[in-house]
Amino acid sequence: MKVRYIINLSKGLTFLVVLSLMFLYDVFTTTAWIYLALHGTYGILWILKDIIYPDKQWDQVVTWWQALFAFGFLSLYWVAPYLLISRNVEVPPYLLAFAVAINLIGVFLHFVSDAQKYYTLKYSKGLINEGLFAKSRNPNYLGELFIYLSFAILANHWLPYLIIAGVVAGFWLPNMKKKENSLSRYETFEEYRKQSGLLIPKLTQLLQLRGGTTS
C-alpha cells in the first residue's frame, strides 16, 4: 500500500470525525463549527492537492502493519478536536480570529509552495531558490506548522502543542535534513543556505531592502 493512500484516508475522514464528535457530545458552539471548517476543509484540500500536483515522496510502498501504524500516528491530529469538543471549549473572539488568520497564512504557504515545487521540477530540474523558497528552504513545512498551531489554539490545551513538537522533532526535522543533504550537491546551495532559513526566514533577510539592508 502506498503511503499517500493512508494520508488521504486520514485527511478525508477528518471532517466526518470532527462532525461526529460534535454530535456525540452535543456541542455546536461557534468554536466547534470554526474548527470543523478549518480542519475539515484542510483535509479536503490535501486530497485535491494530491490529485492535481502529487508529492512523489508519498509513493513509497509500506506493509499493512506499517500502514496501520502510520494511520494510528496520523490519528493523533484528532486529539485537538477531541479536546476542544469533549471539554466544550469556547475560545475568546480574539483567539478565534487569530487562529483563523494563521490558518489562512499556513494554507497559503503550504499549498502554494508545494505547487511551486511540483511545477518547477516538472519543467526544470534543479535548485529552487526563488518565490516562496527564496527566504525559507521549507515553506511547505512552515505552512503546515501554522495550520496545526491554529488547531492547537482552538483546542486550548497543552497536549496538541506537545504533539506538534513531537512531529517536528521526530519527522519534519529529519526530512528537512535529508533534503539538505540532497540539495548540497548543487554548487549554489551553500550561498542559498546562507541567505535563507531552514524553516523560518532569517530576520536579516526579512529586513533586507532592494539594493541593501536597513541599518
Question: Which properties best describe this structure?
Answer:
215 residues, 9 helices, mainly alpha, Four Helix Bundle (Hemerythrin (Met), subunit A), 2 strands, disordered C terminus
Outline:
69% of the residues lie in helices and 2% in strands. It is an all-alpha fold. The protein has a single domain, classed as Four Helix Bundle (Hemerythrin (Met), subunit A) (Up-down Bundle), CATH 1.20.120.
- The CA-CA distance between the termini, in Å, is 55 Å
According to CATH, what is the topology?
Four Helix Bundle (Hemerythrin (Met), subunit A)
Q: From the 3D coordinates, which CATH architecture would you assign?
A: Up-down Bundle
- Give the helix tally: 9
List the helices and strands and how they pair.
Layout: H1 3-24, H2 30-52, H3 64-74, H4 79-86, H5 93-123, H6 139-155, H7 158-183, H8 189-195, H9 203-206, E1 208-209, E2 212-213
Antiparallel strand pairs: 1-2
